[in-house]
């Protein structure tokens, strides 16, 4: 007690330690006034001098990031971004230093190939060792929001890499695995998961039990990703549940990462020893599930490295194991793991959102279904699948013009990613509409609002009209090509979605085979689904009853 007493500070007896405290105590009002004045000066600067100050936008957003953060955290950006552009026009200030736009010309200027800010050279060694310092000093076209996706204790993924050179090197070593040739060679794996799904659906149709597509379609896409890149399906379809809470733990992680990207210090608040200890000690199973999954994945990768492919056909995991690691050295377990995690995070929910978007539109527009089913049924007949009892392939399904048009239109109106894709303009800035925006500002589009741009898709851009993607002469074909070029469902430029081939194969196969086999109706005719946007715009509580057709 006596020892403790000597460390207690006696504020009545000024000394080396107590003097500054006494000074603060007696001048606290001066300090607070000073801070308030500084904040006021910053507000005045943002409102009247900061380069984007002339751009319209909500009043709060003109001097505080809170306006956007509240909307991101409450998961309503899918509505907010549309209302925003409806009210303020095509160029809107959504945070003091961030601008959202809907403008065809600016799209190319910001996202097009070769339009990035100064490229910065760095060796892999320096980049990995000095990662933290470099992030603070380098200029990158990708905004700092992307840093939030850096997973502690794991290798860096190309999605989280802001630096142009590192991104290019990391992406190019895996791009062959994502090519259409490679994906089609793995199509039997996708079919295996589809067959299991149809067997389950048939059971539900027979029993009349309602099912939640919001759960079942992710089971399908997560199992496909498992088949291709994790050495085998995880078993969501088979076990009819979110095995070991993997899917929900990914959703919790995404919610936090995407939203903390705009908060000062980003994921530091969660990735520090104190928070980690508290989560491990007191967190529920869902909060800790991802760590368990990583251990499971590490074992799978180690087994594959030790025992090889065996009788399995070549898959993406094999590609990741055989690719070259950093600086040409052999791949380490961590290199293959980060690519698997990348696909699981980026490729499963996104694809299920695409499939759900189409299923939702088929329910909302019942007049579409008979025509679509007639096209697909005819293809099954003409291609001999009916007698052979085989399934339509991606190549065959994607050649059906009406099916392709419906899928493209649904994914236009409900793109999987709906947050802003923030970038820094190139050196010298960029002109968007009447505004000159400096390279220090962040600018970006949300695929949700950009895909409804009337300048590109016409006055009925908000309507679901699949025929906009069909053509009957050269002129119309050119117009469709131009709309396709400016469609941002999969992003654009050097960061365009690397997995779009896989996504398209899954969506086309799933929809064609599903509508050939089943009819569906809403369990509650008044309610389609609930949307929650947290980087991905996900559909929940999509309850339906199935009826077998074939
Ligand atoms: C319908 C399905 C999908 C949609 C709509 C979609 C959409 C997108 C978009 C908009 C981006 C750009 C993000 C940005 O600019 O920051 C992106 C990037 C990415 N996507 Fe997809 N995606 C889908 C499926 C997939 C699949 C199946 C995979 C993996 C197998 C995948 C892996 C990735 C990766 C790794 C990136 C980062 C690319 C980079 O930074 O270079 N995506 N995706």
TrEMBL record:
<keyword id="KW-0812">Transmembrane</keyword>
<keyword id="KW-0479">Metal-binding</keyword>
<dbReference type="GO" id="GO:0004497">
    <property type="term" value="F:monooxygenase activity"/>
</dbReference>
<keyword id="KW-0560">Oxidoreductase</keyword>
<keyword id="KW-0472">Membrane</keyword>
<dbReference type="Pfam" id="PF00067">
    <property type="entry name" value="p450"/>
</dbReference>
<dbReference type="InterPro" id="IPR036396">
    <property type="entry name" value="Cyt_P450_sf"/>
</dbReference>
<keyword id="KW-0503">Monooxygenase</keyword>
<dbReference type="GO" id="GO:0020037">
    <property type="term" value="F:heme binding"/>
</dbReference>
<dbReference type="GO" id="GO:0016705">
    <property type="term" value="F:oxidoreductase activity, acting on paired donors, with incorporation or reduction of molecular oxygen"/>
</dbReference>
<comment type="similarity">
    <text>Belongs to the cytochrome P450 family.</text>
</comment>
<feature type="transmembrane region" description="Helical">
    <location>
        <begin position="28"/>
        <end position="47"/>
    </location>
</feature>
<dbReference type="InterPro" id="IPR001128">
    <property type="entry name" value="Cyt_P450"/>
</dbReference>
<keyword id="KW-1133">Transmembrane helix</keyword>
<keyword id="KW-0349">Heme</keyword>
<dbReference type="InterPro" id="IPR017972">
    <property type="entry name" value="Cyt_P450_CS"/>
</dbReference>
<keyword id="KW-0408">Iron</keyword>
<protein>
    <recommendedName>
        <fullName>Cytochrome P450</fullName>
    </recommendedName>
</protein>
<feature type="binding site" description="axial binding residue">
    <location>
        <position position="497"/>
    </location>
    <ligand>
        <name>heme</name>
    </ligand>
</feature>
<dbReference type="InterPro" id="IPR002401">
    <property type="entry name" value="Cyt_P450_E_grp-I"/>
</dbReference>
<dbReference type="InterPro" id="IPR050121">
    <property type="entry name" value="Cytochrome_P450_monoxygenase"/>
</dbReference>
<dbReference type="GO" id="GO:0005506">
    <property type="term" value="F:iron ion binding"/>
</dbReference>
């Amino acid at each position: 007690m006596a020892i403790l007493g000597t460390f207690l500070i006696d504020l009545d007896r000024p000394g080396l330690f107590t003097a500054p405290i006494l000074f603060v105590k007696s001048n606290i009002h001066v300090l607070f006034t000073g801070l308030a004045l500084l904040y006021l000066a910053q507000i005045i600067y943002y409102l009247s001098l900061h380069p984007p100050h002339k751009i319209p936008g909500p009043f709060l957003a003109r001097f505080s990031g809170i306006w956007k953060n509240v909307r991101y955290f409450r998961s309503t950006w899918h509505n907010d971004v549309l209302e925003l552009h409806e009210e303020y026009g095509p160029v809107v200030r959504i945070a003091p230093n961030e601008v959202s736009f809907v403008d065809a010309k600016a799209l190319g200027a910001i996202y097009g190939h070769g339009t990035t800010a100064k490229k910065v050279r760095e060796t892999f060694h320096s980049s990995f060792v000095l990662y933290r310092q470099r992030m603070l000093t380098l200029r990158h076209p990708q905004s700092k929001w992307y840093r939030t996706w850096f997973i502690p204790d794991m290798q860096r993924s190309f999605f989280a890499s802001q630096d142009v050179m590192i991104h290019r090197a990391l992406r190019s070593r895996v791009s062959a695995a994502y090519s259409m040739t490679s994906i089609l060679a793995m199509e039997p794996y996708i079919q295996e998961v589809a067959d299991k799904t149809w067997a389950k659906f048939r059971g539900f149709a027979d029993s009349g039990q309602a099912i939640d597509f919001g759960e079942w379609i992710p089971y399908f896409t997560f199992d496909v990703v498992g088949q291709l890149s994790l050495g085998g399906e995880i078993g969501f379809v088979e076990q009819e549940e979110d095995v070991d809470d993997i899917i929900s733990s990914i959703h919790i992680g995404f919610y936090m990462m995407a939203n903390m990207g705009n908060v000062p210090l980003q994921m530091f608040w969660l990735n520090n020893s104190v928070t980690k200890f508290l989560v491990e000690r007191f967190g529920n199973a869902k909060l800790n599930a991802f760590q368990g999954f990583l251990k499971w994945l590490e074992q799978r990768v180690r087994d594959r490295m030790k025992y090889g492919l065996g009788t399995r056909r070549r898959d993406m995991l094999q590609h990741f194991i055989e690719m070259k690691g950093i600086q040409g050295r052999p791949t380490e377990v961590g290199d293959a793991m980060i690519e698997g995690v990348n696909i699981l995070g980026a490729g499963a929910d996104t694809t299920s959102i695409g499939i759900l978007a189409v299923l939702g539109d088929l329910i909302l527009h019942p007049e579409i279904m008979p025509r679509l089913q007639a096209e697909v049924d005819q293809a099954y007949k003409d291609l001999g699948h009916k007698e052979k009892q085989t399934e339509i392939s991606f190549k065959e399904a994607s050649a059906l013009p009406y099916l392709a048009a419906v899928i493209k239109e649904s994914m236009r109106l409900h793109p999987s990613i709906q947050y802003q894709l923030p970038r820094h303009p190139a050196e010298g800035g960029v002109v968007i509409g009447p505004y000159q925006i400096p390279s220090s500002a962040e600018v970006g589009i949300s695929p949700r609002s950009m895909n409804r741009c009337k300048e590109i898709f016409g006055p009925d851009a908000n309507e679901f009209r699949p025929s906009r993607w069909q053509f009957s002469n050269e002129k119309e074909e050119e117009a469709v090509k131009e709309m396709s070029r400016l469609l941002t469902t999969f992003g654009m430029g050097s960061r365009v979605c690397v997995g779009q081939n896989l996504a398209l194969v899954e969506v086309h196969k799933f929809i064609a085979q599903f509508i050939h086999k089943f009819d569906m109706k809403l369990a509650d005719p008044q309610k389609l689904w609930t949307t929650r946007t947290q980087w991905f715009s996900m559909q929940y509580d999509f309850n339906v009853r199935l009826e077998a057709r074939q």
